[in-house]
Amino acid sequence: MKKLINEPSDVVDEMLDGMVAAHPDEVRRLPDSNVLVRNDAPVDGKVAVVSGGGSGHEPTHAGYLGPGMLDGAAAGEVFTSPTADEVNEMIQACDAGKGVLNVVKNYEGDVMNFETAAELAEMESDVEVAEVVVNDDVAVEDSLYTSGRRGVCGTIFVHKVAGAMADRGEDLDEVQRVAQKVIDNVATMGTALTSCVTPEKGEPTFDLGEEEIELGIGIHGEPGVERTEMMPADEITERLTERVLDDLNPESGAEVATIVNGMGGTPLMELYIVNRKLQSLLDERDLTTWDAWVGDYMTSLDMQGCSVTVLVLDDELKELLSHPADTPALKVR
Amino acid sequence: MKKLINEPSDVVDEMLDGMVAAHPDEVRRLPDSNVLVRNDAPVDGKVAVVSGGGSGHEPTHAGYLGPGMLDGAAAGEVFTSPTADEVNEMIQACDAGKGVLNVVKNYEGDVMNFETAAELAEMESDVEVAEVVVNDDVAVEDSLYTSGRRGVCGTIFVHKVAGAMADRGEDLDEVQRVAQKVIDNVATMGTALTSCVTPEKGEPTFDLGEEEIELGIGIHGEPGVERTEMMPADEITERLTERVLDDLNPESGAEVATIVNGMGGTPLMELYIVNRKLQSLLDERDLTTWDAWVGDYMTSLDMQGCSVTVLVLDDELKELLSHPADTPALKVR
After folding, report:
1. Catalytic residues of A
2. What is this model's ipTM?
3. Tens of pLDDT along chain A (333 residues)?
């Protein structure tokens, strides 16, 4: 399998340097570390919002560094949690004395290392750390790397909302409260048309036939709920959307924000075709789309496929989603 | 080959509806047409900048509709020029009395249909139309669909600069002048790791072995300059960059803007790895990168690969690149 890489063991290191080379005014890399932070971190007068996880999900998470979103992003090796030491470094580099919110996707390694890091940072520098764990994937209750639901693309809404609240100068409790509000009101489900190929292995993580797809796939190629034959985009979109809406069970007339997220190898053309059907399904359920995002927000290397995310809104969440953000991967004016 | 589509013959129609559903406040579709325009078109007091071409290159071109960039984008079927009638419709829908600049990529069908459309618009409604033809691909002099060099990703810099000049209220001559200045100072070369697969055919457009790549590929899978064995990303980047810089021959100390563009199926991780090497090569040549873009700007369906674009800058071009833009695919604050 061909990839634009050099040594497989260097991909994360070289990618991080390439990100800094693309955005030198916006992000910097901590010395001898796979942590990127906002160039101006720590930012006086605000709570810091940080995240991280395995690499291979770009632009997640470092693409969301900047005013109105994240202060720090710790990158592990491909599909591997960042170490507790690196997360600790990140927390301390971002804290401006008002505390730090860890936004953690629900994978056992991430949860463990972020918790250890929070204890270290509290012990070493008296940093106040709060945490939220995102578990928006409605496909499976437990999986290969999780107990409880996995954290996937809904995490980007958490970054946006918590980052906005922090940017307003609110305190750590408030930033944590709105992050949790997003988590309580967001759901996602994905599908894979092809497996991803990790740089180290160089071969598909799992086998999927020429006419097969996997519904409910995780972002590391973990098994989903069902392997089924290929279907038209409209039918796939229906299957994903129904399950997401069954989980959320929004009231008729509710306003929502949506993401049609590409898994890394899917052209934008196909994502727009999925979005067309998603929006018509929401309309049929008497839901009003207040904002619709379409693109690659949380990928799985070169996997072909997509996920559908729905967030049920209230006035506070709409205000925070509208708050300006200026990051490499997401700009809101 | 699996794709998130319904009927292959419906992909363009459904994609355009999906784009409007994602950006209803920003773009609208002309009735019974594959033309999208800015929601507020025609915009009083400014020259209109329009473009278009075959579909399959998303976010090109409709992703660049909005303040500071394009007023109209005509979408043909996949890899097929839009009709002269649709381009004519677009020109007339966007003209606010100050004239229209057609930004055309150098493919025979596009050039012919945009020229016919300009004549029709002038005849029917007395619209003043000017044109620039983008031919930034340094790979081959003539190709399957062109006499002269092909127009590829450098076109996005033309959209940005011409759109900024128009947004400032300058006249048609001035907007055309700066568009041509970009064309005279930009060069691009691409590579394919895999072929694209068109929805109609459902099979690779060309065969490329498991250990082969094609250097100098076009955005429709047209042959490049050389089929060679797979190389590390650094070596590929060197080959592309050298050829681009040989063509431009910038003075030592010059400032440049760059694009590492994904072809649709390449993960962002790999594009950043290419960007890292590109920036170090520019540095070695004593060139200063003033701005570096990394992402999917002009794709070729699901093709894996990338292109490298370099634009040599002067103060005017820097000012125009910095001018605000607010489009689905590119936002400059």
Report:
1. 57, 220
2. 0.97
3. 899 999 999 999 999 999 999 999 999 999 999 999 999 999 999 999 999 999 999 999 999 999 999 999 999 999 999 999 999 999 999 999 999 999 999 999 999 999 999 999 999 999 999 999 999 999 988 777 788 999 999 999 999 999 999 999 999 999 999 999 999 999 999 999 999 999 999 999 988 998 999 999 999 988 888 999 999 999 999 999 999 999 999 999 999 999 999 999 999 999 999 999 999 999 999 999 999 999 999 999 999 999 999 999 999 999 999 999 999 999 998
Supply the pLDDT for residue B145.
Answer: 77
Q: How far is B333 from chain A (nearest CA, A)?
A: 8
What is the mean predicted confidence (pLDDT) over B242-257?
Answer: 97
Q: The tokens of B221 are what?
A: 């899978």
Residues of B within 8 A of A21 (CB-CB) are 275-276, 279-280, 289, 292
Shortest distance, CA B39 to any CA of chain A (angstroms): 16
Q: Which of B57, B61, B159, B323 is catalytic?
A: B57
Q: Are B32 and B275 spatial neighbours (Cβ–Cβ below 8 Å)? A: no
Length of chain A: 333
The pTM assigned to this predicted structure is 0.97
Q: Which one-letter amino acid corresponds to residue A253? A: G
- Chain B residues with CB under 8 Å of A306 CB are 4
Question: Which of the residues B272, B275, B287 would you substitute to probe the A interface, choosing the one with the greatest number of A C-beta atoms within 10 Å?
Answer: B272
Are A22 and B292 in contact (CB < 8 Å)?
Answer: yes
The CB-side HSE value for B112 (13 A sphere, CA atoms) comes to: 9
The pair of structure tokens assigned to B204 is 């690779």
- CA-based nearest residue to B221, from B239, B238, B208, B209: B208
Longest dimension (CA), chain A: 55
- Hey, are the CB atoms on B59 and A232 less than 8 Å from each other? no
Tens of pLDDT along A43-88?
A: 999 999 999 999 999 999 999 999 999 999 999 999 999 999 999 9
Q: Domains (ranges, CATH) in chain B?
A: 8-185 (3.40.50.10440), 186-322 (3.30.1180.20)
Nearest chain B alpha carbon to A260: B22
Give B103-157 pLDDT, tens digit per residue.
Answer: 999 999 999 999 999 999 999 999 999 999 999 999 988 777 788 999 999 999 9
- A267/B233 touch (CB, cutoff 8 Å), yes or no: no
**Interface contact B15-A269, CB threshold 8 A:** yes
CB A277 within 8 A of CB A323: no
| Binary contact (A4, B306; C-beta < 8 A) | yes
Q: How far is CA B210 from the centre of its chain?
A: 29
Predicted confidence band at B45 (pLDDT cuts at 50, 70, 90)? Answer: very high
- Chain A contact set for B333 (CB, 8 A): 326, 331, 333
Cβ contact (<8 Å) for A5 and B232?
yes
CA distance B152 to B136: 6
Shortest CA gap A301–chain B (Å) = 6
Kindly report the nearest CA distance between residue B230 and chain A, in angstroms. Answer: 7
Closest CA to B141 of B218, B53, B196: B218
Name the percent of chain A in helix, strand, coil, to the closest 5.
35, 25, 40
Chain centre to alpha carbon of residue B39 = 21
Residues from chain B that touch A15, judged by Cβ atoms under 8 A, are: 269, 272-273, 276
User: Exposed/middle/buried for B157, CB within 10 Å: 0-12, 13-18, 19+?
Assistant: buried
Q: Which of A193, A194, A292 sits opposite B21 (nearest CB)?
A: A292
Dist CA A73 CA A51 (whole Å): 5
